[in-house]
Amino acid sequence: MADLLRLLLRVAEKAANVARVCRQEAPLFQLLVQEKTGDDKNKKFVQDFKTLADVVIQEMIRHDVGAQFPEMAAFIHGEESNKFENGLGESVTVTVCGTEEDTAALLATVLDGDHTAASLLARAIHQDPESIDADTDGLTVPLGPSELGIWIDPIDATSQYIEGREEVLEEGRLSPSGLHCALVLIGVYLRSTGEPVMGVINQPFNYKDPAGGGWRGKHFWGVSCGSINVCSVSRPKGGPGAGLSAVLSSSEKPVVKEALTSLCGPDKLMYASGAGYKILCVIQGLADVYVLSEGSTFKWDSCAPHALLRALGGGVVDLTKCLQSSSQAQEPQMELTYHQPNTDRKGAERWANRGGLVAYRDVSQLRSVIGPLKDKL
Ligand code: 2IP
Ligand code: CA
């Protein structure tokens, strides 16, 4: 299934292009940042353009993967539903059509006849991405398409994407907020066990060309399947250092912030936006762990970066399960899985990582955060 990896790298790059185009092209950008209130909201489409951009990216990925791997078509899931209602109260199902013209015509019905915006979006969807420079030669993945399912987060950290703050990245440091935190996430899991086996992350706004050439993206990928563990990011050199560093959501509970300040010290406790971005920080060694005590992330947020962490020898565990277990318990049983819903919940909550999570590269570092949290939560 190395072919699937190469396909996902290409579609993630296309998705990143769509995300960039929506910010670059004025007619799309206006829709993206438009605050719809009162009467205006009623006249316009029911969902906002941000949601349409997400749906379009998700459907494009579904279309391309389903075309090459039909066995996977029924197992491609995402954050958004593709049913839209336009200003006339008509229900429209957003799909990617065979031609750019047909996709533009369909999008125009959701965009209440805005043909300029519809054509710009359709062009980005049907454009071939630049070739992707990813060293996947010689990689074999001993899995078949009928064993696999996919989770897509078209744009994680949407609020940062909309706000669009351009931060200058400092080498070796994480960026607490801004466009860098927005990521396209595509994760592949085993239908039988729910283990994440392959992940592609595209960061559409990684680097801004100083000569005015616009934003360039960066991709990251990993495969973890039996004895095959390959990741485009190398494990940071050296074992766990003396001090542990952690990244949290700024909305994390005070009790968790206090416990981790005592453990890490104030300088090594960091905050960043985006669930996917925080796991990417752990992958890149910018933080050792990401701790989240709330059930506020979903399968589409964690599946892709989880696969990369596994390829590096780490993982993502359910925090509540870890806190409840005796210290001898085996961590693999605590790892998040991706195949079963929370059957007692409705809507998106069915796919919430309800017990919170800890993302880690090194199991000894995972243990060192669980201990201090045990009597606090
Ligand atoms: C969100 C996004 C948020 C994150 C939340 C995710 O996904 O990543 O930033 O909250 O958990 O579900 P926080 O930044 O506080 O960690 P989306 O942007 O796709 O809704
Ligand atoms: Ca998300």
TrEMBL record:
<dbReference type="InterPro" id="IPR000760">
    <property type="entry name" value="Inositol_monophosphatase-like"/>
</dbReference>
<dbReference type="InterPro" id="IPR050725">
    <property type="entry name" value="CysQ/Inositol_MonoPase"/>
</dbReference>
<keyword id="KW-0378">Hydrolase</keyword>
<keyword id="KW-0479">Metal-binding</keyword>
<feature type="binding site">
    <location>
        <position position="155"/>
    </location>
    <ligand>
        <name>Mg(2+)</name>
    </ligand>
</feature>
<keyword id="KW-0452">Lithium</keyword>
<feature type="binding site">
    <location>
        <position position="156"/>
    </location>
    <ligand>
        <name>Mg(2+)</name>
    </ligand>
</feature>
<comment type="function">
    <text>Mg(2+)-dependent phosphatase that catalyzes the hydrolysis of the 1-position phosphate from inositol 1,4-bisphosphate and inositol 1,3,4-trisphosphate and participates in inositol phosphate metabolism.</text>
</comment>
<dbReference type="GO" id="GO:0004441">
    <property type="term" value="F:inositol-1,4-bisphosphate 1-phosphatase activity"/>
</dbReference>
<comment type="subunit">
    <text>Monomer.</text>
</comment>
<dbReference type="InterPro" id="IPR020550">
    <property type="entry name" value="Inositol_monophosphatase_CS"/>
</dbReference>
<dbReference type="GO" id="GO:0046872">
    <property type="term" value="F:metal ion binding"/>
</dbReference>
<keyword id="KW-0597">Phosphoprotein</keyword>
<feature type="binding site">
    <location>
        <position position="79"/>
    </location>
    <ligand>
        <name>Mg(2+)</name>
    </ligand>
</feature>
<comment type="pathway">
    <text>Signal transduction; phosphatidylinositol signaling pathway.</text>
</comment>
<dbReference type="Pfam" id="PF00459">
    <property type="entry name" value="Inositol_P"/>
</dbReference>
<comment type="similarity">
    <text>Belongs to the inositol monophosphatase superfamily.</text>
</comment>
<protein>
    <recommendedName>
        <fullName>Inositol polyphosphate 1-phosphatase</fullName>
        <ecNumber>3.1.3.57</ecNumber>
    </recommendedName>
</protein>
<feature type="binding site">
    <location>
        <position position="153"/>
    </location>
    <ligand>
        <name>Mg(2+)</name>
    </ligand>
</feature>
<keyword id="KW-0460">Magnesium</keyword>
<feature type="binding site">
    <location>
        <position position="301"/>
    </location>
    <ligand>
        <name>Mg(2+)</name>
    </ligand>
</feature>
<dbReference type="InterPro" id="IPR044897">
    <property type="entry name" value="INPP1_dom_1"/>
</dbReference>
<dbReference type="GO" id="GO:0046854">
    <property type="term" value="P:phosphatidylinositol phosphate biosynthetic process"/>
</dbReference>
